[in-house]
Amino acid sequence: MRPRLGWFVSGLLFVALIITGVWGYNQHMQNIDYNNRTNNLYEKSFYELVGHVSNIETELSKMMVSSDQGQNIRMLSDVWRQAEFAGSNLGQLPLRHMALDKTSTFLSQLSDYCRYLTIKAGEGKPLTIEEMENLKELYNSCINLANELKVLEDSVNKGTLSWQDIRDKGNEKLEDVSQDLVTRQFTKIEETSIEYPTLIYDGPFSETLLKPKKLNIQGSNIDYREAEKIAIEFIGKDRVEKAGKGAETQGTIESWGINLETNDGEGPLYVSVSKKGGKVISVISEGIVQNTQIDYKEAEKRAKDFLEEKGYKDMEITYGQHHDGTAVFNFAFTQDDVIIYPDLIKVKVSLGTGNIIGFEAMNYLTAHRDRDLKEPKLSLEEAKKLVNNNLDITSERLAIIPNRGGDEILCYEFKGKFGEDNFIVYINADTGKEENILKY
Fold this sequence. Notes:
Blueprint: H1 2-63, H2 69-91, H3 98-122, H4 129-157, H5 163-168, H6 175-191, H7 224-235, E1 240-245, E2 249-250, E3 254-262, E4 269-274, E5 280-285, H8 296-309, E6 315-323, E7 326-335, E8 338-350, E9 356-360, H9 362-367, H10 380-384, E10 392-402, E11 408-418, E12 421-428, E13 434-439
Parallel strand pairs: 8-10
Antiparallel strand pairs: 1-3, 2-3, 3-4, 4-5, 5-9, 6-7, 7-8, 8-9, 10-11, 11-12, 12-13
Helix pairs in contact: 1-2, 1-4, 2-3, 3-6, 4-6
């Protein structure tokens, strides 16, 4: 009996050991899953916080050069809400250092003050000089906060800090950054004295708000074979090795899709051609540029020459940027020296070969037409006097811009600087209203 009992006990212990091992493994995997989910939540909250603070900085900077009551209401309202969101994101992070209490207080005061000013401006009461000075102080504090968040963001991205370390070790690794943040930045924020009542881009109109009432593409309908021929000729027969049918679209402009294999290593390319009129709407590259061979100015020239070659005349470059071996340029149509922003085309150039590897003409194809440009009621000098004196104007001209309602407005475009930042202010050429402010 005893040997059997011993075997029975040994079996029970073995089974118990297996169960314990399985339970321990499951607990371990659950812990890993919990840590991953928690870390993802912390990362999401942090990057949203950085984004909100960046948006606040942009909107406050625009207010420094705005003279329009309606614009002020919109921007104050946006800052108020962004500050609330930022405060909520901050509260979700595993940060317990005293300095971050000051950050939370700053965001709360900023939200409260802008809510108060929004209500006041909505009642038709203009902002006072003192209130604008308060906003300027808040703007400077926001710049400091954005800079310090960037330091922390870089540390997280480089692996110097992890959210799990911050949570588990009581911010020991955060100490240097936080202490620096306390002594150099948040003391200034805390000492900002304000009396509360009871505190891009990728180029002008790159994503136009214009809503065309009808398409301006002329011509008859084409079949796929015709579209394929148009796509090959647009890219260049010498670059194309093989063509195949891609996805059709039924959106604003019905189009054929053509997949092109290229011989320069910068494909494949997807080309969209309108079913009516046979116009190339877009070209998208899925390739990667390996080596940079040409400079930015040469790429700009090639983009402009390409548009000329394809029949797009009187196009003026309005914006450009380069990264990852490519350069992207925005072009707008000009008529009688007036720049027409709704008629926009984007061209992407490889800095490796100088070839065109991207093209987007949806705005141009839906908006372009012959326009009857009337003389503005205000002179340039009259409009210039309506621009906030804080803006150091560097250039001015007439421009047609789209508004939120889908209409086109003739404006004076004033480019200038405030501090280290660049702005474009648009003054209605007939009414003198400040229609828009862009920061770039």
